[in-house]
Specification:
By secondary structure, the chain is of the alpha/beta class. It is 31% helix and 25% strand. It folds into two domains: 4-145, Rossmann fold; 148-278, Rossmann fold (3-Layer(aba) Sandwich).
């Protein structure tokens, strides 16, 4: 049987502790030494190098520093003769830069994948990547885990009145449909309007939401530029209450609530450390590792 170990970076210590318990495999937590010029060096000696090492290191803000730590951890694992290096990166930095928008711009998401492959990583595991297109012809085997089940389980515990699931735009309907099928709730995808300056708004009455509990599911929130006008519009349409679920939440929740002007519930996964992170990614990550490398 292939031996498996965990190597946990500083950006994912909480997830690492949960995985250590769930998987019951040898676990090493990286130590960082920071120099006077602010550069740092990771240290993670493996007493006995496993055949497969699973590096757990998210890349939330500060993205560049956490990416550099991830790169160093891959190099450490390779230098200690680990044959199979798997990187678990719940939020993948630069994944939204998934194409060259204009000539002269980089394909930044591909740069991250190329760097991991060049260092010797054999696989990348992330969660709900913004666009799986970045994995097309990628130099490294990559997979994006779904949190559909985690969200459905969390929503099933809420005290809701005649719930309806809302997607802020057509792009999120696949995830929403899967949650709706699990819970037996209806879904509704709205049309989002956006001008050249990035201003977002919604139009038209939505009679289906009047007096009901509305659950908005989004993949990422960095500023609230979508949820703020959406929530305002839903309140104008007579919604009962709003619950906003986000996979990767970067924003300041209080600032969003202040701008909306009425209370909504915000909840997110722990891919990004923040006050709204109440859904642990450990179960879905642990199941994947067990099925792929331990069972």
């Amino acid at each position: 049987m292939t031996t498996v170990g965990l190597l946990v970076g500083s950006a994912s210590t909480a997830l690492g502790r949960e995985l250590e318990v769930a998987l019951a495999v040898p676990t090493v937590y990286a130590e960082l030494r920071t120099f006077p010029d602010s550069e740092f060096c990771v240290r993670a000696p493996l007493s006995r190098a496993p055949e497969t090492v699973v590096i757990v290191q998210g890349t939330p803000p500060p993205q560049d520093r956490n990416l550099q730590e991830l790169y160093q951890l891959v190099d450490v694992a390779i230098s200690q003769r680990c044959r199979n290096v798997v990187c678990v990166v719940p939020y993948l930095a630069y994944a939204r830069q998934d194409k060259r928008t204009v000539p002269g711009e980089p394909f930044s998401a591909r740069i991250v994948l190329q760097t991991l492959a060049a260092l010797g990583a054999s696989r990348l595991i992330t969660v709900e990547v913004h666009n799986q297109r970045i994995f097309n012809d990628a130099p490294i085997d990559a997979a994006s885990l779904s949190v559909t089940g985690l969200f459905a389980d969390s929503l099933s515990r809420l005290n809701l009145h005649d719930p309806v699931l809302i997607s802020p735009d057509e792009g999120g309907t696949q995830r929403l449909r899967a949650i709706g099928e699990i819970l037996g709730w209806p879904i509704l995808a709205l049309r989002k309007f956006k001008n050249e300056r990035g201003h977002t708004w919604y139009e038209g009455r939505i009679p289906q939401v009047k007096g009901r509990s509305v659950i908005v599911i989004d993949d990422l929130c960095s500023s609230g530029s979508t949820v703020i006008p959406l929530a305002r519009h839903l309140f104008e349409c007579g919604v009962g209450d709003i619950h906003y679920g986000v996979v990767h939440f970067f924003a300041n929740p209080q600032a969003i609530l202040d701008k909306i002007g009425q209370p909504i519930e915000i909840f997110a996964t722990d891919s990004i450390p923040n006050p709204t992170a109440r859904i642990s990614l450990a179960p879905v990550v642990a199941d994947f590792i067990k099925n792929q490398y331990i069972s």
